[in-house]
What we know:
Layout: E1 8-11, E2 23-26, H1 32-45, E3 51-54, H2 60-65, H3 75-81, E4 88-95, E5 98-104, E6 117-121, E7 126-130, H4 136-140, H5 145-151, E8 163-167, H6 173-176, H7 186-189, H8 193-202, H9 228-231, H10 247-253, H11 261-287
Parallel strand pairs: 2-3, 7-8
Antiparallel strand pairs: 1-2, 4-5, 4-6, 6-7
Amino acid sequence: MAARSRSALVAASDRRFQRFGNFLWSGKGSTGDEREMAKKIASTVVRGDYEVLYEGQEKSNFWEAIGGKEEYTTNKEQTEHRDVIPPRLFHSSYTTDAFRVEEIVNFSQSDLVQEDIMLLDARHVIYIWSGKASSKIERDATTFIPIQYLRTDPAERDEDIPVFFVKQGFEPNTFTGFFKNWNSTLWNECKSYDELRRELEGKNPVLELNTVLVDGERRFDDFVKYPVEMLREEADTLPDDIDKTRREGTYRRLGPSPPSLAVALDGIKILIKKLRTLECLLNQLESGVIPSEN
């Protein structure tokens, strides 16, 4: 086990090595949240008392407890070599038995989708944000999302960096500070997809689909049907609503029916999500949370 200047760790000795003692060590560059989390872990895993140590005040039995003293990067060296890298927000969703992750550029609070899981990469720490309407499958997967993300990062990231799990509505200041003009009441004003769906189902709406296809022609069901034998007759004997010069087009229209209603409803679901995001942005503009460019 190696100590790092920007972290806090708990060293708990088992019965065989109880002579070393139990320790809670804090690096000079560790954050208050990390130290508090280390205290909570120590109160859970450590049997008995533990000694609190700070970087530079270590005793020999501490180094023995973690396997010996090794060279490690100090906070000063990390600060000198650390580049200023802006945080990155990723949207992850579960579709067709696979997770899909997509980066959101120039992100804001309104990009946090209530139905999904979001990953905020603050370089020295990873936040996993869970929307209140996310599925159980997505929430269960939050444990391996940061691991896969760090392993596939081309920058060869350290897999031991802190990962914090945040629930919608319980965001700490360390998380909201990465978002400009955070509005704690934003989601109170905006409805989720499921809420909108339940509201629509309660009103028993009549779904009207446009009968015009992409190519400008009407649907198959909108045409009057004639037997093929009749269409093969002489042109002057055909009904007036048939184009005598395009009888082959009439045959083509007797093909497969349009896409199913399920496909159309999938598109409507995506559209509702986008409209909800737009509604949130408009509410923020009206309330002054997002300054207008005018």
